[in-house]
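> example.struct
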């Protein structure tokens, strides 16, 4: 479990010492630092605080005025405003300004500090999750309103054409139209499948230690038709190393990465290398490298956003959700996922997994890969 980071902002040295002592004597696993002024708080960079215990009376102005500025700098921080005297109006203003809680200094105690910090941090986590869910809903609304229109309209038009051709007694034309109709249905199906995979990346699958080769082999099995059709050469190295995670989600992650490498290697049989090696933090670094068209530097971050595709993406079909799903799965595993240029042209997708279970991830289980 990572220790909480708490910043105390108070111009009274005795109060600063009291609050730090109360935190240390509580059940909180926390690291505290203290500063005396608003300027010191805004310039603080020793760590990103999870919570700020903020005095309402500071030499440079009210703590109320400082709350929005602290939230601008650390959007996910929980702020607890403290005053010398209890005041319901100040309490209401503190919440309206973005504070999570409010307390009169005379009411400070080990239990009250522990309760406010714990509840404040948990509340901020819920707000972040709610904001992410809202963005997800907006994304799916965009898909339903916009992205489904084209294939549905095409399916309707092509069905009408096929019926007209058959009524006119032109079976050859009807056959060609039905081929195009089949392609339109396949596009709609691909979009639905991508959306389903994106949603399932949030599922609470059990985590366990497995050889990296297990989810990679599952991904290769799912991609076997494309691999055989393209005559792709795919090598593995170091994948017997152990990896902590959800086997189904990791299989989806590697399936999307290897599938992209297949798609964006348009000339000749694709050459793809999957390697696993110790990461700089003691975890495992898994790389999927191809010799395809590559990704320009300006787009290497954007491609992980939903529905963001390269301007050259017309060389391969896709919905723009594959890499967004990969990033979501990586986040759930406490992992990093970056796009780098390949050593022999093409692209390297590097996923750095942490060495141990991460707090707030799904519970371990006994399910096999």
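> example.seq
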């Amino acid at each position: 479990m990572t220790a909480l980071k708490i910043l105390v902002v108070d111009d009274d040295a005795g109060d600063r010492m009291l609050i730090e002592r109360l935190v240390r004597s509580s059940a909180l696993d926390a690291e505290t630092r203290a500063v005396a002024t608003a300027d010191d708080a805004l310039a603080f960079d020793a760590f990103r605080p999870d919570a700020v215990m903020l005095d309402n009376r500071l030499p440079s102005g009210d703590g109320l005025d400082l709350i929005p500025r602290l939230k601008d700098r650390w959007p996910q921080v929980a702020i607890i405003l403290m005053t010398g005297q209890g005041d319901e109006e100040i309490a209401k203003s503190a919440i309206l300004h973005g504070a999570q809680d409010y307390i009169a200094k005379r009411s400070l105690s080990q239990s009250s500090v522990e309760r406010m910090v714990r509840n404040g941090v948990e509340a901020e986590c819920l707000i972040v999750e709610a904001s992410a869910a809202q963005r997800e809903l907006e994304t799916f609304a965009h898909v339903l309103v916009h992205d489904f229109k084209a294939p549905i309209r095409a399916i309707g038009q092509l069905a009408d054409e096929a019926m007209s051709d058959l009524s006119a007694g032109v079976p050859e034309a009807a056959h060609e139209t039905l081929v195009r109709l089949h392609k339109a249905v396949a596009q709609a199906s691909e979009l639905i499948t991508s959306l389903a995979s994106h949603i399932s990346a949030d599922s609470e699958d059990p985590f366990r230690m497995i050889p990296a080769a297990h989810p990679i082999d599952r991904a290769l099995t799912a991609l076997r038709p494309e691999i055989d059709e393209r005559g792709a050469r795919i090598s593995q190295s170091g994948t017997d190393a152990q990896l902590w995670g959800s086997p189904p989600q990791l299989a989806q992650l590697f399936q999307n990465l290897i599938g992209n490498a297949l798609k964006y290697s348009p000339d000749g049989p694709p050459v793809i290398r999957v390697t696993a090696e110790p990461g700089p933090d003691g975890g495992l670094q898994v790389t999927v490298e191809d010799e395809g068209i590559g990704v320009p530097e300006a787009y290497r971050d954007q491609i992980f956003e939903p529905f963001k595709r390269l301007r050259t993406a017309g060389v391969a079909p896709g919905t723009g959700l594959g890499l967004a799903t990969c990033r979501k799965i990586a986040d759930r595993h406490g992992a990093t996922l970056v796009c780098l240029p390949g050593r022999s042209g093409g692209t390297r997708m590097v996923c750095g997994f942490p060495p141990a279970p991460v707090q707030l991830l799904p519970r371990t289980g006994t399910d096999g890969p």
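> remarks
Residues 208-353 form a domain with the Heat Shock Protein 90 fold (CATH 3.30.565.10).
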